[in-house]
Structures are given as structure tokens and as C-alpha cells.
Amino acid sequence: MKMPFIQLDKLTRLIAAIGFISTSILVLLFIFLTVYFVKRDFGSYRNLLIAFSILGFAFSSSEYIVHPMIHSYSAGFVYFTNPSSLFSNEAMKIGLVLFCGIYGATVCFIAIQFLYRYWALFDVNKMKWFEGWKISIWFFYSLFIGTIWAIGIFHFLENDDYSLDYFRQGVRQHYSLELSSIPSFTSLIYTRNGDVRWKNLMCTVEMTMIIGMQYLIICFCGRKMSTGMKEKISMLSETSRRLHTQFFKSLVLQIVVPTFLLFLPMIVIIYLPLFNLEFSFPTGILFSAFAIYPAIDIAIILYIVCDYRNAIKYVWKTMKTTCVPERYIPPEISFPVCTIQNLVAYPIQTTRMV
Q1: Is 63 helix (H, G, I), strand (E, B) or coil?
Q2: How many Cβ atoms sit within 10 Å of the Cβ of residue 85?
Q3: pLDDT tens, position by position, 12-55
Q4: If both were cysteines, with which of 40, 49, 279, 284 could 69 make a disulfide (CB 3.0 to 4.6 Å apart)?
Q5: What is the number of alpha carbons within 13 Å of residue 61 lying toward its C-beta?
Q6: What's the rounded Cα separation, in Å, for the pair 231 and 234?
Q7: Residues 39 and 253: beta-carbon distance below 8 Å
Q8: pLDDT tens sequence across 82-117
Q9: Which InterPro entries match (predicted)?
């Protein structure tokens, strides 16, 4: 059983590298387009989008640098990473904690985006909480949730002699690592006699409350928008109606994608020990979904929202124009606009030869 687990670890490293590279490229592209080319006034939502893209980059980067792994075994799991030649074990343990904190902040920020879109359509008066300095409240709220998640990992899952003895043989057998000598945290819900280890169980309760609260906000806002959106946007201008429709389409995908890439993997990891099944498996492979989520989330916005599609086409057209042979005089290029049918419209242009 040892060799397949090592191969899975190599696969997760590859996926993490792909996720980090793709996220880095897309985040830079997204911020560049948002700041310099997307001229439509998205209000404070523009700031939320930029902040979330930066958070996504931090999430993907931490996953790539720390490379967290989880091995689930019967009544618990061990959360660990390989020792690093660049950092001490204590520094890598802090990295494991920070990764969990960024995960919690990311989940929270997704819920904040849904709340913003919901209030923008159904309770405009509350939009004042996203204006000016008040938008920082949401940044601190996301940071607070991430901090609570990280503290829970650090406090409730600290190793003890019993948990180290419980997981030592499995880690040594499958990963050729000595558990007491590597950066790690352990969660063990039951003893071998079936007694509940309440300290570790409290971490499961804490994570359940955080995930449940954020997902409840997402589902509530998503449900309300799906049922009442047609009536609300009918009272808006054509431009606003089109924009809200595009962002709603992106939010629908932003429910489905994090459900399968962020929520379900974590739910599987934290709830499997409650059943105390006789199995041993590297559930850390599910972290691969975490690595690619930020890139997919940004790609959704770039594809769905017409302004970003147009900006990409404009930049591409400009690059091609500036790279034409010298015998051509580059024509003047106008920025594309969204038509009522969300098509791209350009002024008629001509190119003359010299």
C-alpha cells in the first residue's frame, strides 16, 4: 500500500504547481484588466473582486509552499507536511495553520460576495455597509473567521502522546516519515476503547459551525436571487439589468464550484472520523481541489462578465496591432462595448498599406 500513496503525493504536488501557476497568471490578468481596461462602474464590488483575487492567490501560494497532507485512519486524521530544508519544523507548523486560516477566510469571502449581490438587488439601503471605509468591516470579518479557524487547528489539534502513538505506524509505513519529527497536527475523535476525545471533537464542531454559517448565507442569497431576480431587474435600466444577469450567472457557478472543490472535500475529511470506520487512506488528495479553485473562480468571471471578455479581446487586438509588420500603419482601435445581446461591437476600422 505504500507505493500508491507516494504516487498520489506526487500527483498532488503536480496539481498544486499547476494551480499556483494558473492562479498567478489569472490573478495578474484580472487585476490588470480591472484597473486599466474595465471602465464600467461596478461600485464597491470592484474592490471585493480585487480583494478576493488576491486572497485566492494567497490560498494557492500557501498550498503550493506548505504542501499540506492529510491521512485519514479510522477514528481520526493526521494533518502534516514534509520537513523543509529552508524552514524549521515550527515555521512549517505555522504554515499549516496559516493555510487553514486562509481557507476559512476564503469560504467567508465567498459568502460576503453573495450577500453583496443580494443586497444590491433586494435591499439597496444596506449597500451603505459596503461604501467607503465600511467595506473594511467585511475584510476584517473575513480575517476574523480565518483567524478563528486557524486558532481552532492550533489549539484543538495539538499532538499528544496518545495521538502520536495512534498514527505513528501508518505515517511511517505509507510515507516513510517519523510522525514525532515532522510538522503535524492530529485529530482523533475516539480512543481505542470508544471513549470520545472531546478536545479534538470541538475542532470538528467549530469547523462545522463556520462552514455551515457561510454556506447557509450562500444558499439563502442564491435561492432568493434565483426566485426574485426577474421581477427586480425588470425595473432596472438595460445596462444594469444585463450586468446583474451576468454577475448572477457567475454566482450560480460560484455556488456549484466551491461546493465541490471547497466544501465537500473538507466535509469528507472532518466527518469521516465520526464513523470510526476501519480504513486508511490519504484524504489529502482532496486538497488538490483547493489548489485549482482560485484559478477556476477567476476564470468564471473573465468568461461570464462581458466587460472582461471585451477587455481581453481589446488587449489581444491591441497586441496584434502593435506587432504587425512595419509596412502597415496600425489603425486606431476603439475599446469594444457590450451590446444589448452581450455581443462585442467595434467601430469600423480600415488599414491602409504604405
Answers
A1: helix
A2: 5
A3: 888 889 999 999 999 999 999 988 888 766 778 888 989 999 99
A4: 284
A5: 10
A6: 5
A7: no
A8: 888 788 999 999 999 999 999 999 999 999 988 998
A9: 7TM_GPCR_serpentine_rcpt_Str
DSSP 65-108: HH--EEEEETTEEEEE----SSS-HHHHHHHHHHHHHHHHHHHH
The number of beta carbons lying within 10 Å of the beta carbon of residue 12 is 22
Cell of 180: 514525532
Q: How far is CA 17 from the centre of its chain?
A: 15
pLDDT digits 0-9 by tens, 209-221: 999 999 999 989 8
Question: pLDDT by residue (tens digit) across 259-310?
Answer: 898 999 999 999 999 999 988 888 878 878 888 999 998 998 888 878 888 8
> Do 203 and 157 touch, CB atoms closer than 8 A?
yes
| 295-297-298 Cα angle (round to 5) | 70
Q: What is the DSSP code (8-state) at residue 128?
A: G
Give the per-residue pLDDT at 130.
93
* Domains in the chain with CATH codes: 2-304 (1.20.1070.10), 314-354 (no CATH)
Burial 288-305 (b: 16+ CB within 10 A, else e): bbbbbbbbbbbbbbbebb
How many of the other CB atoms lie within 10 Å of CB of 234?
A: 8
pLDDT tens sequence across 146-159: 999 999 999 999 99
Q: Rounded to the nearest 5 degrees, what angle is found at the Cα of 153, between the Cα atoms of 151 and 157?
A: 130
Query: Which conformational region is residue 321 in: left (phi greater than 0), alpha (psi within -120 to 50 degrees), or beta?
Result: alpha
Average pLDDT over residues 223-227: 79
- Please name which of 111, 116, 150 lies closest in space to residue 131, comparing C-alpha atoms: 116
Predicted confidence band of residue 233 (pLDDT cuts 50, 70, 90)? low
Do 188 and 75 form a contact (C-beta atoms < 8 A)?
Answer: yes
